[in-house]
Design a protein that fits this description.
- The structure is a homodimer of 344-residue chains.
- Helices cover 42% and strands 19% of the residues of chain A.
- Chain A is α/β, with parallel strands linked by helices and 344 residues long.
- At the A-B interface, helix 4, helix 5, strand 2, helix 6 and helix 9 of A face helix 4, helix 5, strand 2, helix 6 and helix 9 of B.
- Chain A binds a DNA duplex (16 and 16 nucleotides) through helix 2 and helix 4.
Chain lengths: 344, 344
Amino acid sequence: MMQARVMGIRDVAESAGFSVTTVSHVLNDVPGKRIADSTRERIREAADRLGYRPNRLAQGLRSQRTHSIGFVSDNIATTPFAGQMIHGAQAAAADAGSLLMLLSSDGDAELEDVEIRALIDRQVDGIIYASMFHRVVTPPVRLRNTSAVLLDARTETGEFSSVVPDEVGGARAAVEELLSHGHRRIGFATDTSDIPATRGRLIGYRQALEVYGVAFDESLVHASGGEAAGGFSSALELLSRPDRPTGLFCFTDRIAMGAYQAAAELNMSVPEDVSIVGFDDQEIISTNLRPGLTTMALPHYEMGKWAVNTLLDQINNGGNTPVVHQLSACPLVRRASVSSPPRA
Amino acid sequence: MMQARVMGIRDVAESAGFSVTTVSHVLNDVPGKRIADSTRERIREAADRLGYRPNRLAQGLRSQRTHSIGFVSDNIATTPFAGQMIHGAQAAAADAGSLLMLLSSDGDAELEDVEIRALIDRQVDGIIYASMFHRVVTPPVRLRNTSAVLLDARTETGEFSSVVPDEVGGARAAVEELLSHGHRRIGFATDTSDIPATRGRLIGYRQALEVYGVAFDESLVHASGGEAAGGFSSALELLSRPDRPTGLFCFTDRIAMGAYQAAAELNMSVPEDVSIVGFDDQEIISTNLRPGLTTMALPHYEMGKWAVNTLLDQINNGGNTPVVHQLSACPLVRRASVSSPPRA
DNA sequence: ATGAAAGCGCTAACAC
DNA sequence: GTGTTAGCGCTTTCAT
């Protein structure tokens, strides 16, 4: 383990025959410094030869910039989306030469505060405050002591820049996919929680119907307690009606999974007897269902990227950036669960 | 943004009327220092009053210990397991006052090397080198310049401490679950990849049969190209035989999902007509399938924890720790997909 | 075109 | 019991 000896800027200076100042100048490409090309070359050569690597800690201490950003999330283990957000964030950070410091609070507000403190103690340049599902949050006040951007979340008052998925637009596109295939009776198997997603997707559902001049029929929207089991019972009920819908818009892919089970139970096949579109594009479900599920993708990767890019801008501008609230589009992912309605 | 002014150890010293040395001693509880209780108190009070927080960068620079550890993984977005490993690692790190710096290489070896360098430049205390599925890896040589432990991976030569799931034991337990319910013809729907998981689980399958004195029948193991579609065709074939198995051990939950689909196709129900046990406990599948899937959990959280604890030990002992290769047990998660075989 | 020297905030010999 | 002082490895002002 451990290299022979780790070379510092002084070793480079000595070896190249210049002062540390000059070495620092050339290695950091400090602008507006008149330095002989030959000098630059000799210094670079020496640095390479010695395998010099700047100590980022020392740099950070001196320059007040650590090139590391904190990522606090309420959860990370139990949601398949965390990975995408983190990945997007990490990719954007890496592009800018920064690293992510990751922390999960498991929803414990006190712990969250401790974690943010730990991050600030480490002099992170800023913090991404992430939620694993779109919601309204109230971050610890301490978050105001830093640059911060909200990911998949918003505060009541909108004080931080934030990015969330476009629930309304996504739902509208989902239902339009069904409408454009000729469906006119379209059920909505939704969730009982009162969160931005349920509200937004219902609005989108209605908007799409309106665009196509289809009257909204309240009895066609059925809410249940999330997950496949809820989707199963919602769909079972909806599909058992004499005037059953020919298309089903499901609040999540998990609910769609339940809808598939209900269809099987009723000996109906997808999409011949009933077309289904989901939401989330949880690939493990959407690609493994038979037939593959047409669904709206949640733009987690893009949101993660947007969040750190915005944070970085904010940091680089010394906090003089306007607060912006970004809506991120949910693209339609076509697979095989939508066709024309049965002839009847 | 930004607090009024951030207090340093000097402010505390001044305010308390002692030297920075003494402040450092009491705030860090340095052992073997004789300091008056009254002094301790006054210093603590001053620190609290001023809201003093040590600058971890400066501490790290001086003490050569940053209390941050790097986590490099080949992937993070597209696997549902990443979250669990990261969470376990982060939890263990947090317990020890350390933070995780996260990096994903997307399988790009060159990038991986760059990332490890970036981590070392930031003076991380050590590095977790993680794979998102159990495999044999060859990490960049640079990894030897630090303390490192392998997570869900091993090298050919076993030079780093490592932790991987006990594939053999898990598979044996899975098949024994079937055997103990009375099944004697048990199919194995596996994957075609040649990786530790396929090899180990086949061994476990055979061991369990042997324990129960059931002869191994090669025609009962059917390999396909992963995912639900493969499981569907494997199971369809296995279950269509005249001497069809009454129990199915599936290489993954995704394959089990395909097996459910095949059972439905054949109008067989789970578990009445066929009992199924999976592997992985991908909850999004295992809990949402109907009926719930009995499966073997992959101990990702525990492995993540073990990895950083072991790394931390290694760091604290200055690298004089023996290399250890840990097998982590895969617990059985009983749900509703196993019962006694049909009377026939 | 280059360098001396101060100092980022802290720890740890070593004095007293 | 407590304080002085010398750095950790680097950036940056200011001289020259």
